[in-house]
Amino acid sequence: NAGVMQNPRHLVRRRGQEARLRCSPMKGHSHVYWYRQLPEEGLKFMVYLQKENIIDESGMPKERFSAEFPKEGPSILRIQQVVRGDSAAYFCASSHKGNTEAFFGQGTRLTVV
Amino acid sequence: GESVGLHLPTLSVQEGDNSIINCAYSNSASDYFIWYKQESGKGPQFIIDIRSNMDKRQGQRVTVLLNKTVKHLSLQIAATQPGDSAVYFCAENKLVFGAGTILRVKS
Predict the structure, then answer these.
(1) In this structure, is the dihedral angle defined by the CA atoms of residues B44, B48, B53 and B55, taken in order, positive or negative?
(2) Contact (Cβ atoms closer than 8 angstroms) between residue B76 and residue B63
(3) Interface contact B98, partner A, CB < 8 A
(4) Residue A39 and residue B77: Cα distance in Å, rounded?
(5) Is the CB of A102 inside 8 Å of chain B's CB atoms?
(6) Which ranges in B8-84 belong to alpha helices (H)?
């Protein structure tokens, strides 16, 4: 049973480009969470999704950021028109259901140049 | 909004000693709490969880204590080892995280 898979592990984008971060949850998990982490800081909640539904997006910036978790395929975190301040590590976690043990991926490190 | 916070940003302990990492939470409606360990360059790793109908739960070398009266959570690590050096986060419902505590183990 593979763990939570995130790809790419490292992503470099120029200012103004789009970044697409993928998260494949553990088998059987239908809940996905996305987080952003700056160096030496904590994990900032962004969005919580179930299959085909956004449950809580209170941590998502209103502009340029979007997330989806389609019926088939991985969850996608999309950042349009990236700026240098978007540079961070982005982690996703998955769980079988809410308020249960959640497992994290190894993260995608986004660098905007 | 509601948040989870940690009291001590850095904790240094001698190898073999016990470590206690504390966490305060503000959402009194939270009924599920988790501790995670994050090593440099890696994703957070689940350590132990506890539900609000319990006040103590033990794992292998770790114990989590929950005090709902004062909304306080702690992680106790027995016989701390160099491999325990990491950042420790507590999280509550829907995985809202605090800032983290850095644990440094001195040999």
Answers:
(1) negative
(2) yes
(3) yes
(4) 25
(5) yes
(6) none
- Who among B32, B44, B45 is closest to A43 (CB)? B44
Most A CBs within 10 Å: which of B34, B88, B92, B94, as the mutation test of the A interface?
B94
- Using the Cβ of B95 and the Cβ atoms of chain A, whether some distance falls under 8 Å is answered with yes
* Residue B94 identity (one-letter amino acid): K
Q: CB–CB of A18/A70 below 8 Å? A: no
Residue B83: both structure tokens together: 């491999």
Chain A and chain B share a number of CB contacts under 8 A equal to 52
Structure tokens at B84: 């325990």
Note down pLDDT in tens along chain A; length 113 residues: 579 999 999 999 999 999 999 999 999 999 999 999 987 778 889 999 999 999 999 999 999 999 999 999 999 999 999 999 999 999 999 999 877 888 999 999 999 99
User: What residues contact residue A24 under an 8 Å CB cut-off, 6+ apart?
Assistant: A2, A4, A5, A6, A74, A75
Chain A residues lying within 8 Å of B44, measured CB to CB: 43, 91, 93, 104
Q: Which of B92, B87, B90 is nearest to B102 (CA)?
A: B87
